[in-house]
Fold this sequence. Notes:
Blueprint: E1 2-6, E2 9-12, E3 17-24, E4 33-38, E5 45-50, E6 57-58, E7 67-72, E8 77-82, E9 91-97, E10 113-114, E11 118-123
Parallel strand pairs: 2-11
Antiparallel strand pairs: 1-3, 3-8, 4-5, 4-9, 5-6, 7-8, 9-10, 9-11
Amino acid sequence: VQLVESGGGLVQAGGSLRLSCAASGFTFDEYAIGWVRQAPGKEREVVSCISPSDSTTYYPESVWGRFTISRDNAENTVYLQMNRVKSEDSGVYYCATQLRYSCNDYGSGILDYWGQGTQVIVSS
């Protein structure tokens, strides 16, 4: 399993950023996949998950209405559109999967496969 994130960078508060994750080494369209962020001094947080068919998505309250996860199964890629970003959105964002169909357990933060992460810095 290989997950490669891109798209991070510096963004002003209130702005937007789109992260991408290219996946390989598994049957992408059979599994849910998500995004997890880690900020210094804070607990790791799952910020989104999407089911294989796009029918189910998961967001915690901290990003609800601002972040949108999507996937392109033909391109084996998952995206995270981040809008109206806040300083507390800063951190390293990882693409990750449990290699399960459902997003039900993603809130636990226990995921089996991770990318190398991409840094997001929100300036105020």
